[in-house]
User: Which sequence fits this backbone?
């Protein structure tokens, strides 16, 4: 009996282990049969009917090694009762006849990457029209063997071919971790198992050229010769290593080097008005391009926030932003054309200025990108398609400022972007791994990497539990689903206040006040976080695998990080409460008072112990993957926090010494223990400008240059002028969970001035909600351009002192706060106490139920 499984019906398929082929990406077509190819003591011969092909020879040896791990006797190119035949019928008549006699109908129309695989009781046949197809057929057989929980392989006939010709993976190695040569080669081997056929690194500065060696860090970069070595290694696994160099914005690392600072604008953009800029870029291209594949070369050109802000302002004012951007494109296009190299670039600025799509050369390959979870991505595709430009779609496993990727969001992003790309003629897929802030480690990305490869090869709807089954067994060689269950359980953390979005903000929240300060710590959802971590730990404890993926300890690190952060907050509040109670009873119940301090010492020691364990394990796992470069950015932050914990410990010991000496304790205001529980979520992230000083009248509309207070909807780096003085919007995260301390951010006191702060509030419905505002002086509140309240603060700042009901429309609402100052400190606070609030940067979403 045979039965056919079509991916057309996969969305309604009930997952049954007997019906699942343990291959990622899933084959386009397959039929199971009742045959069984035994993995018993009988010798198995592996016969390769093609010569002088190193990728195939190497991979055949890998296949033999996998079989030997099952204690099987393996022979090469010989006769045996059981034989694995690998060949191309058109190149070998003997192999062609063998396929025919086995009943395998050869499909000569399958693409170069496609293959056919037949498993019978006495033989396995892998056939293709090109060596690349054979390569991928062997990879599929390896995964079938990995996923077999029995001493046989179930009979099957597979016909497989890719949805996209180009199936790529991009790894950001410029904003954090820079992998070692050994780790990069292991990535290449694993990418090839997933049928990825090109790879690109996002490079801003980590290439050490002969002409400009100073732009690259000594402890975290690759020379041109090393890039050549990686390129040649990738070829052994049918992967093209594509070159990339950021060539407009995101230039801050190079511009921070004194010898190159003069090339820049605003410290982030290489200037398009300086001829030396193009000489520099040409130098880089001249050395880099020969070291990489000829497929294409990416010049990036995304997010050019500072174009027109300094040296290029006059040119932009004269010609327009789009024209200056176009001229820069053409300068780079000509440089690459002279080197016989196809140019690729990101598409975001082109989509913002769509007239450029009709003007740029048709052979520029566009990478159109977005990493959100959306129903469709046509607005990122159709303008490029309609301009008759070739393009690749670029979804992502977003690691930006993350401890662990939000895989649910990534799956939707990859699914829908590749679906729309395939329907509209995309040449390929580039699944992007971004490492902004550098906290994440690559070995926690493989689930999303494999899913991107899945949809690049077989772009069709999938059931996640069925994909998980194939990933766990075929890719990881695991006997259960504990790994993916752990991931899904940890991803539940993104819905809680403390672990909102799974970002690394949790790591750097201020938890210990300075002496004399008061600090509040949020315990919202802490019990839920601790519960999820316990469940994730139970799942991870059951995880076992037989492949060379080293994943368990990396997920364990994620659990340990979150557990440490949760108990820091629980224990610090407990320590502070103990100290306050000890002060209260020091004269009436002195021994109980002392016991509370001793308990505090025990708790702070546990905090320090957990923190040290996290630092040590994080450093160890980082160094298993990466160079030392950028590691200290993370560990130094931990060490700075550890200093604060040691300060609390020393203060507790000092108070114990005082108690043992004269029966007294240091007052609360002389300690770092004035810590209490935060009553709710405050708006901690804002878009702000620098304070406005030196005006005779601050009461008017000071945003007229950008449309006025009623229409203001600022973007990052947007600039405007007041009396010829330039002001610039930027995002900030307050170090305090409840207040925005403007005087501390800008180091200003006792100055007469005003500042604007901006945030978005998203609501699923039109509704009025209560807001609480604290201000030390005058404060004006605008909602969607309407001034809804004016408050005059008390002599002393009191959070939540002022109450107001604000009207929200359905969708996006604009919140603008204008805060005045004349003397003393400059602070304000804002929250919505009666609704659940979550945020991403300065974008807040309310949940009414």
Assistant:
């Amino acid at each position: 009996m045979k039965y056919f499984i079509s991916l057309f019906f996969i969305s309604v398929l009930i997952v049954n282990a007997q019906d699942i082929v343990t291959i990622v990406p899933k084959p386009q077509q397959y039929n199971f049969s009742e045959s069984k190819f035994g993995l018993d003591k009988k010798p198995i011969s592996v016969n390769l009917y093609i010569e002088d092909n190193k990728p195939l020879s190497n991979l055949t040896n890998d296949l033999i090694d996998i079989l030997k791990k099952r204690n099987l006797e393996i022979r090469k190119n010989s006769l045996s009762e059981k034989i694995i035949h690998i060949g191309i019928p058109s190149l070998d008549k003997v192999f062609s006849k063998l396929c025919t006699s086995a009943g395998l109908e050869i499909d000569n129309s399958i693409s170069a990457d496609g293959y056919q695989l037949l498993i019978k009781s006495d033989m396995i046949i892998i056939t293709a029209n090109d060596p690349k197809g054979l390569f991928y057929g062997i990879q599929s057989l390896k995964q079938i063997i990995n996923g077999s929980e029995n001493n046989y392989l179930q009979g099957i006939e597979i016909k497989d071919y890719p949805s996209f010709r180009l199936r790529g993976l991009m790894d950001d190695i410029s904003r954090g971790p820079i992998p070692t040569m050994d780790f990069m080669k292991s990535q290449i081997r694993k990418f090839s198992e997933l049928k990825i056929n090109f790879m690109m690194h996002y490079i801003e500065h980590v290439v050490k050229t002969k002409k400009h060696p100073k732009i690259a860090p000594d402890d975290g970069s690759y020379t041109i010769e090393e890039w050549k070595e990686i390129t040649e290694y990738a070829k052994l696994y049918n992967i093209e290593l594509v070159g990339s160099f950021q060539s407009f914005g995101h230039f801050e690392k190079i511009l921070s080097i004194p010898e190159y600072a003069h090339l820049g604008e605003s410290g982030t953009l290489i200037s398009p008005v300086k001829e030396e800029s193009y000489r520099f870029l040409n130098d880089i291209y001249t050395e880099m391009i020969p070291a990489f594949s000829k497929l294409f070369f990416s010049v990036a050109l995304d997010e050019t926030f500072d174009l027109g802000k300094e040296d290029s302002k006059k040119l932009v004012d004269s010609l327009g932003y789009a024209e200056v951007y176009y001229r820069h494109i053409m300068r780079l296009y000509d440089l690459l054309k002279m080197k016989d190299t196809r140019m690729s670039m990101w598409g975001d600025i082109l989509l913002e200025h769509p007239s450029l799509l009709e003007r740029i050369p048709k052979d520029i390959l566009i990478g159109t990108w977005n990493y959100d979870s959306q129903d469709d991505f046509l607005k990122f595709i159709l303008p490029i398609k309609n301009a008759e430009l070739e393009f690749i779609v670029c979804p992502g496993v977003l690691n930006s400022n993350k401890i662990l990727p939000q895989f649910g969001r990534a799956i939707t992003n990859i699914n829908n972007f590749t679906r729309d790309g395939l329907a509209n003629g995309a040449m390929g897929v580039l699944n992007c791994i971004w490492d902004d802030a550098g906290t994440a480690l690559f070995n926690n990305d493989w689930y999303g990497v494999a899913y991107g490869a899945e949809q690049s090869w077989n772009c069709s709807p999938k059931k996640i539990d069925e994909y998980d089954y194939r990933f766990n067994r075929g890719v990881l060689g695991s006997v259960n689903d504990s790994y993916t269950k752990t991931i899904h359980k940890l991803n539940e953390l993104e819905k809680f206040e403390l672990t909102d979005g799974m970002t690394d903000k949790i790591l750097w929240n201020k938890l210990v006040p300075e002496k004399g300060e008061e600090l509040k710590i949020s315990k919202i959802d802490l019990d839920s976080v601790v519960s999820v971590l316990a469940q994730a730990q139970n799942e991870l404890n059951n995880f076992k695998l037989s492949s060379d993926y080293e994943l368990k300890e990396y997920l364990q690190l994620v659990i340990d990080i979150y557990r440490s952060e949760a108990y820091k907050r629980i224990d610090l509040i407990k320590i502070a409460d103990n100290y306050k109670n000890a002060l209260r009873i020091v004269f009436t119940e002195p021994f109980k008072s002392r016991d509370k301090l001793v308990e505090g010492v025990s708790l702070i020691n546990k905090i320090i112990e957990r923190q040290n364990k996290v630092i040590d394990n994080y450093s160890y796992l980082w160094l298993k993957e990466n160079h030392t470069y950028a590691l200290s950015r993370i560990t130094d932050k931990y060490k700075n926090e550890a200093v604060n914990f040691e300060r609390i410990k020393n203060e507790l010991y000092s108070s114990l010494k005082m108690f043992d000496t004269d029966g007294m304790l240091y007052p609360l205001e002389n300690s770092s223990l004035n810590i209490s529980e935060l009553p709710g979520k405050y708006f901690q992230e804002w878009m702000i400008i620098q304070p406005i000083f030196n005006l005779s009248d601050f009461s008017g509309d000071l945003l007229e240059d950008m449309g006025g207070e009623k229409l203001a909807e600022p973007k990052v780096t947007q600039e405007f002028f007041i009396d010829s003085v330039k002001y610039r919007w930027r995002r900030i995260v307050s170090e305090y969970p409840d207040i925005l301390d403007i005087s501390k951010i800008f180091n200003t006191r006792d100055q007469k001035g005003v500042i604007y702060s901006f945030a978005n509030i998203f609501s699923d419905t039109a509704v009025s909600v209560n807001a609480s505002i604290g201000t030390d002086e005058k404060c004006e509140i605008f909602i969607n351009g309407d001034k809804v309240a004016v408050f005059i603060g008390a002599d002393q700042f009191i959070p939540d002192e002022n109450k107001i009901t604000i009207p929200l429309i359905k969708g996006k609402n604009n919140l603008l706060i204008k805060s005045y100052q004349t003397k003393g400190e400059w602070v304000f606070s804002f929250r919505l106490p009666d609704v659940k609030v979550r945020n991403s940067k300065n974008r807040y979403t309310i949940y009414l139920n």
